[in-house]
Specification:
Blueprint (H helix, E strand, L loop, with lengths): L7 H8 L17 E7 L2 E6 L10 H12 L4 E6 L27 E5 L7 H14 L4 E5 L7 H5 L16 E3 L2 E5 L14 H13 L8 E5 L6 H9 L4 E6 L3 H16 L4 E12 L6 E2 L6 H9 L3 E7 L1 H8 L4 H4 L4 H16 L13
Parallel strand pairs: 2-3, 4-8, 4-9, 5-7, 5-8, 9-10, 10-12
Antiparallel strand pairs: 1-2, 6-7, 10-11
Helix pairs in contact: 3-11, 5-6, 7-8
The protein binds adenosine-5'-diphosphate and magnesium ion.
Length: 362
């Protein structure tokens, strides 16, 4: 330790060498480090942890303690549930980080390790299927770089103001929707930096008047990085679904995605294999273009249940482009059936009663 008297700023600088377990960025820039106070060689640090968890992950604790011990400092760590917003985002409303959204029973994130695997298609169809079976559903498009909700749900309505900074979601196909696409002109370039993205997602979560929801489905941006961590810090996620295609490359990505959610202590509800078999538009024949058993292999490698296999079916793309999720456009088709089954499984997992079913709660 140099002769400098330790200060909170110095401690923060030291903590810039500590990464959040499993993430490439340091705990300070990620906004994990909250208040720091120093008394002599004793340092107290409050941490803002993802998922509203109150215990500090042991790996993180060890790293912080040893980073400071190397400079002769003793660290005491506590988690700051409901601490103030990170300085990088605008001052937030009253909702605490990692907190539950008032009136929202469950929050499920739909994620994928890479783009183009059909994550948004799954998120929109799942939201519609959950609504079809009788749940009150919200859909938050957190993919601010490539918002596809307006096209896939077939609406570019602007959200109505609700007083102050607040706004109403756009109701479409029985689902309450919010997307960056509602706030952009076609010509606006979408260039957001990390902290701005965090601020936007925070506003979508907290400033939107969601009302009572059985489930809020979040379409996450692809990848296993900051956006996922940021979201996990801002709202209590009840679980994550991982969308994948059945190729080998996807397998590695899926395992990475599952590992990330485990790090964040967010339950992985399961894997959804999209474009798993090809359905010939002419004759309806089913062809296993990626070979047999890819789904089981993925699920085993991910150590998570394979919840659904959705075929590569041209109608899914065509109807999606027209703003009519297949679940609604072709309710009798096999993909729609698969989505409804998935919706029932998830409703049971989050403990939402389906009206008219024996398990329904009052
Ligand atoms: N099961 C499927 N069958 C046919 N086309 C699909 C299927 N799933 C997705 N698509 C199409 O693939 C493209 C990428 O899907 P999208 O949901 O935008 O992916 P992501 O959100 O992962 O980037 C879209 O044109 C979509 O309509
Ligand atoms: Mg997408």
């Amino acid at each position: 330790m140099s002769d400098d008297k330790p200060t909170p700023d110095l401690v923060r600088d030291l903590l810039r060498q500590v990464h959040y377990p499993g993430f490439p960025r340091d705990v300070v820039s990620l906004g994990v480090v909250g208040e720091v106070s120093v008394e002599g060689k004793e340092v107290s640090i409050s941490l803002r942890l993802p998922g509203g968890r109150t215990d500090v992950p042991p790996v993180l604790e060890k790293e912080i303690v040893s980073a400071l011990a190397a400079h002769g400092l003793r660290a005491r760590l506590a988690s700051a549930v409901g601490a103030a917003a990170p300085a990088t985002t605008r001052p937030g409303p009253a909702v605490a980080e990692g907190a539950e959204l008032p009136g929202v029973h469950a929050v499920i994130a739909v994620s994928s390790a890479k783009g183009g695997v059909g994550k948004s298609t799954v998120a929109t169809n799942l939201a519609c299927a959950l609504s079809t079976i009788g749940l009150k559903v919200g859909l938050l498009d957190a993919d601010v770089y490539g918002p596809s909700l307006p096209i896939m749900m077939g609406t570019d309505a602007r959200p109505h103001a609700a007083g102050g900074n607040r706004f109403h979601p756009v109701e479409r196909h029985g689902v309450r929707c919010v997307s960056m696409g509602f706030f952009l002109d076609d010509s606006s370039p979408v260039i957001w930096r990390g902290p701005m993205v965090a601020g936007l997602v925070r506003q979508f979560l907290n400033d939107c008047v969601w009302g009572e929801l059985d489930v809020l489905v979040i379409d996450l941006p692809p990848g296993t990085g900051d956006a996922q961590l940021t979201l996990a810090q801002q709202v209590k996620l009840d679980g994550a679904l991982i969308v994948t295609t059945p190729q080998d490359v996807a397998l590695r990505d899926v395992v990475r995605g599952v590992a990330m959610f485990r790090q964040l202590q967010i339950p992985v509800l399961g894997v959804i294999e999209n474009m798993s078999v090809f359905v010939c538009p002419e004759c309806g024949d089913v062809e296993e273009i990626f070979g047999r058993g890819a789904g089981e292999t993925i699920a085993r490698a991910a150590d998570a249940p394979l919840l659904a296999q959705i075929p590569l079916d041209v109608r899914i793309r065509e109807e999606g482009d027209r703003g009519r999720p297949i679940v609604l456009a072709e309710p009798g088709a096999q993909p729609a059936q698969t989505y409804r089954e998935l919706a029932h499984v998830l409703a049971a997992r989050i403990g939402a009663g389906v009206p008219g079913s024996p398990a329904a709660h009052a």
